[in-house]
Amino acid sequence: MMRRLMVSCALGLGLVSSADAATLRVGPTRALKAPSAAAAIARDGDVVLIDAGTYVGDTATWRANRLIIRGAGGRAHLRADGRSAQGKAIWVIAGNRTTVENIEFSGATVPDANGAGIRQEGAGLVLRWCYFHNNQNGILTGANPLSDILIEYSTFADNGIGDGQTHNIYIGAIRTFRMRFSRSVRAKVGHEVKSRAAVNDIRYNVLDDGSAATSYSIDLPNGGESRVVGNLIVQGPNSENTAVVSYGFEGLSLASKRLWLSHNTIVNRIVGRGTMVQAPAGAQVVVVNTALAGDGVLVSGAAKWTLAANRRVSMLRYKPYIGSPLVNRALTVATVLTPRYLPGTRRVARVKLGLRNDIGAFERRP
Asked: Mean of the pLDDT values across residues 146-156?
């Protein structure tokens, strides 16, 4: 009844309906003052537009399916201020096939120290242009074999509580995880990206510890069919685990045990030690066309390794330049392993100047 009344009477305040779904407008001047009010009445297929601004202490559980939830006129900032939905997160997303765009999440804390900007419990999530910072976890997902998650054009920064169990991004045992054109930086002792998905595709991102005591840049603890392509990965000098990419070290329990790393630039700022990629016996790992800067070894562990066209360069000059050992030296690889864009959030095309691609995540500029 409340929803029908608002749909029929609040058109002047920006709530628009159709036969199949409604567009719910949220903001201080709207009939719906806060996102939680929209969550309470949203139905399958609705679009929720949240006016730019800061919503302090407002938390919500989203139960409807196929929702599109978007910041309008700028980014909408959800600042937890000590509150949470279900003792879990700023937003608990229980519905399926949800899209969240242009939303900022900060300050999620709960008593069990596992609070998240988003706790994803439904099957299927797309995040675009979102910003997660200073939460106990940035995003935390449950185990759902029917769930596919895409993160793009988003930033995760300064999440974690320093216990090694909380992370910028923690993806549970789902079907597929894709991350592209995004940044994950300065995770507090936890990982920049951790995923237990059966299939992982991580490409065109910037993962940078800065001076934080971050753990792994990428942790794929159970294996999985995994591709890491065209990323800039920087391990900071204070990292507590000296491996940059870790694969299968909690047990290779997933069906696929194959990892491909192609055209990444990996910078290790720890002096005198470190490992770029580690993987145990039973894993099959290909590392190709990778630019390496800093100390440490390329690989460690008893995996079956295939290594080709990987070059070590100066810490100060890890991008290709005229005369660089990276220029026109890449091997031709399968299309799925060939980068089309530069790392970062702006989706800049990678333009090949010579007959062959350059090694690493970057191409020499004209």
From this structure: 98
